[in-house]
Amino acid sequence: MKKFSILLMFVVALMSLASCGGASKKNAEAQQCEHKGQCLPVGLQLYSVRDDMAKDFKGTLQQVKAMGYDGVEFAGLFDNSPADVKAMCAEIGLNPISAHVPLADMLADVDKVIADYKAIGCEYIVVPYVTEERRPGGDKFNQMIEEIRTIGAKCKEAGLTLLYHNHDFEFAKTESGEFGLDYLYANVSADLLQTELDECWVRYAGQDPVAYLQKYEGRSPVVHLKDYYASGEQKEDPYALIGLNEGEKKENTAFEFRPLGYGVQDVPALMKAAKHAGSKWLIVEQDQPSMGKTPLECVALSMETIQAIRQDNSKCDHNHGEGSCDHKDEKKEDCSGDEKTCSGSCKH
User: Fold this and answer.
1) What is this structure's pTM?
2) Tens digits of per-residue pLDDT, 120-133?
3) Cα–Cα distance between 328 and 116 in angstroms, integer?
4) Spatial CA neighbour of 167 closest among 252, 285, 280
């Protein structure tokens, strides 16, 4: 009996060691992922594939998941009920992160907007765009700030968080000398309004997107990763490309949205900055397809770029330790016919 007890104690000890070893391995992997700073989950703003969503809502979500996206940000429900959308996301394995909802819809019935997206499981509701009179210098700019404060309080009460998604026009100066975007965030407290910085428009406005993420560290839970290409003088309105300004030409050779890694953005630097800023989600968005690709092909290319960056950084961390890798960007020749340096390599 004594021998059996000793043997039993030995077996238990071995099982304990194995369990600890497994836990240690998992903890080490988690710490490595955290240390690399490149492991934020990635979602897709479904406006990028809106025509596909209109034709086949669930099938498009399935394709998005198959590409490697972890979650989605809605831009309309296309006549699907919140309950059905929640069920689809659960079945497919996509996190329903957030939703872009026109400010006019929120002003008309904010309680319904909150109820619908809370039922889906969204954590954030986003003001996606404001019309000219509500922009800096517009007659209703200050009114818009009060409206956002009220909506933010409603969201907070319901357990959701209100975000503001910028374009470039928020970088017009106010009478105080501040950019309109900064004035907004200074006048609505962080508990009522967080940022969703669109890094395409930050850079297009002439600002440093990495610096802006650093500026709003701790207030940037969701970051829009968007790339673009511009050449020469901008003669036409880029908003005409997304159908927002009626009467403008939609052909524009000086500006086009691009998949991540095929434009001017330093995508690895943006990903690293988002992690350091305490962001929870990266959201890919491409307002219009380009390079002769379909919308789904474009967002697939963006995910390929993100996966390549993660892989390259993993190799760098393994071989050199974080911050010591200095590889050059690889050349990609699939940039709308123009050979250029595209982001997607290991870069610290």
Assistant:
1) 0.80
2) 999 999 999 999 99
3) 47
4) 285
